[in-house]
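Inverse folding, one chain.
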């Protein structure tokens, strides 16, 4: 072997040694990921069966006062507005008698004046022995009738001039049943005033659900403009007749007037129609779905295990477990969305309310 060849081989060997020395060391294996989770026990619980409904808020008929007219009148002016708080004596409307009412008023005055004159004439004749007791009794009877008719006209029409209708007590204007220019017959409601202490919620119920609803059931109410507000109530009565306009029956809920629930607003209601004690269940947050198949993650020996379950009733807070789990097992309720089967977990304590 020539000297040049030996030199070239030595150089190549040196380059191989240098390349081997400069190669990076192999990386150590990555640490196994550990998920932090919170768990809850599978346990027997009372599971509620709920019915969802919508309805309107108004004043309870128990606190409504009707201001009506006792004679036919024309509405000249409306001063108040629906929802306006008023105090006793506040003007609500201005009304005046119609021509028919004025004619009745004038006729009553005329009949009264004539009856008085006739009674006086008969009395004079009786004193002159030109009239009998029967004549005098008849005249007195006509006079009493005319006086009663006149008193009625005055009580209903006052002096026959325009007048103001005023609030008879403190309250809120629940409704104004007439408009300016309306002719209101006698005994027509003009205004409804409400005491602010009691509200009534009228909930629409599907006729098929009506057998499940009864007085005394608990109700949770939320204004549709803020579903975070939860107000308790109780079904006081059930209207079993179907409304021809809405095609719904009604459940009535009386409750104290609260600032978060405004008359005229629409509410969402959850009616607790039944409670089943001793049902095996888990918190709703523990149940995940693959398609329409429910499953949970169970923690055992520091690892998460996917368990397929048979789910029953869901009351919004808890889910009934018909199969797949046993009482006392720990299921993941927080952190379960990032878990994989057999993944290592670290169990954190459940957060407590401050």
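Residues assigned per position:
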């Amino acid at each position: 072997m020539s000297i040049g060849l030996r030199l070239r081989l030595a150089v190549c060997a040196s380059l191989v040694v240098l390349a081997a020395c400069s190669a990076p060391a192999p990386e150590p294996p990555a640490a196994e990921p550990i998920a932090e989770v919170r768990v809850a026990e599978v346990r027997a619980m009372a599971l509620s069966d709920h019915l969802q409904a919508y309805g309107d808020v108004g004043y309870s008929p128990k606190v409504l006062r009707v201001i009506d007219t006792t004679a036919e009148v024309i509405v000249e002016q409306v001063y108040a507005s629906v929802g306006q708080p008023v105090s006793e004596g506040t003007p609500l409307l201005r009304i005046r008698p119609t021509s028919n009412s004025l004619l009745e008023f004038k006729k009553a005055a005329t009949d009264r004046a004539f009856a008085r004159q006739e009674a006086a004439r008969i009395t004079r004749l009786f004193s002159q022995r030109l009239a009998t007791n029967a004549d005098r009794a008849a005249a007195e009877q006509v006079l009493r009738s005319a006086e009663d008719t006149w008193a009625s006209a005055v009580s209903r029409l006052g002096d026959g001039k325009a007048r103001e209708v005023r609030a008879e007590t403190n309250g809120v204007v629940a409704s104004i049943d007439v408009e300016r220019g309306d002719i209101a017959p006698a005994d027509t409601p003009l205004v409804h005033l409400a005491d602010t202490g009691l509200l009534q919620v009228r909930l629409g119920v599907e006729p098929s659900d009506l057998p499940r609803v009864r007085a005394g059931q608990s109700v949770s109410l939320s204004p549709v403009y803020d579903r975070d507000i939860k107000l308790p109530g109780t079904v006081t009565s059930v209207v079993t007749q179907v409304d021809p306009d809405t095609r719904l029956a009604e459940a009535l809920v009386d409750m104290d007037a609260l600032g978060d629930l405004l008359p005229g607003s629409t509410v969402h209601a959850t009616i607790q129609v039944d409670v089943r004690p001793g049902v095996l269940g888990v918190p709703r947050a523990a149940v995940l779905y693959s398609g329409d198949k429910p499953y949970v993650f169970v923690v055992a020996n520091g690892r998460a295990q996917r368990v397929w379950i048979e789910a029953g009733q869901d009351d919004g807070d808890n889910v009934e477990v018909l199969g797949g789990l046993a009482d006392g097992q720990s299921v993941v309720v927080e952190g379960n969305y990032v878990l994989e089967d057999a993944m290592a977990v670290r169990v954190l304590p459940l957060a407590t309310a401050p």
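The radius of gyration is 43 Å. The chain has a mean pLDDT of 87.
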